[in-house]
Amino acid sequence: MRRAVCPGSFDPITNGHLDIIERASKLYDVVHVAVLINRNKQGMFTVEERIGLIEEVTAGFGNVVVESHHGLLVDYCRERGIPAIIKGLRAVSDFDYELQMAQMNHGLTGVETLFVPTSPTYSFLSSTLVKEVASYGGDVSHLLPETVHGRLVERIAERKAAQ
Ligand code: PNS
């Protein structure tokens, strides 16, 4: 089985993420989507919620496994025999940090990182921007899977009501 991992925070998954996962799922037998837990970052969605949303929107691909991981990405890969990390590159500005991480990860365990150019439709897209725009009432429905957009609008309304 040829395996690869698409890692990230996925808070929440966007159409940009989904595009990369779908393309990876056509190249590999099994694609792991690893939701990396960062205890220093308060998310909009819990890790369990993020996993549920990713499972829902990737179910149709048929070969995607979604899991959370706390710790180093290279350990996640080593424990599961995954030789390749797939990352989307949106713009040159992503490259510096992504290259550093790829070189560090390769130096740690020999795991390879493969970069996939993001579709130009999503080159400006990030979960952070989507949350910010949505929280001020901007329309981000074209940037998220429908079910994810619905949950984001709900969550923002819940948070506003609790303030
Ligand atoms: O979606 P993000 O937040 O841009 O994803 C970044 C992520 C989670 C892929 C990166 O921070 C990561 O790999 N974290 C796991 C911890 C780790 O392995 N750190 C060393 C990287 S060289």
From the structure above, extract its key features.
163 residues; alpha/beta; globular; Rossmann fold; binds 4'-phosphopantetheine; 6 helices
Task: Please summarize what this structure is.
It catalyses: (R)-4'-phosphopantetheine + ATP + H(+) = 3'-dephospho-CoA + diphosphate. The chain is α/β, with parallel strands linked by helices and 163 residues long.
Write a structural description.
By secondary structure, the protein is an alpha/beta fold. It has one domain: 3-Layer(aba) Sandwich (Rossmann fold). Helices cover 47% and strands 19% of the residues. The protein has six helices and five strands, in the order βαβαβαβαβαα. A five-stranded parallel β-sheet has the order 3-2-1-4-5, with helices on both faces. Helix 4 (92-109) links the parallel strand 4 and strand 5. It is globular, with a radius of gyration of 16 Å. The termini are far apart. 4'-phosphopantetheine binds at residues 7-9, 36, 72-73, 101, 104-105.
The gyration radius over C-alpha positions equals 16 Å
Domain module count? 1
Portion in beta strands: 15-25%
Give me the strand/helix succession. Answer: EHEHEHEHEHH
End-to-end distance, in Å? 49 Å
Q: What is the C-level CATH assignment?
A: Alpha Beta
CATH third-tier fold name = Rossmann fold
Tally of alpha and pi helices: 6
Which structural category fits the helices and strands?
alpha/beta
- Helix amount: 40-55%
Tell me about the biggest sheet?
5 strands, parallel
CATH A-level architecture: 3-Layer(aba) Sandwich
Pfam families: CTP_transf_like (PF01467)
Main location: cytoplasm
Cofactor: Mg(2+)
Binding site for ATP: 9-10, 17, 88-90, 98, 122-128
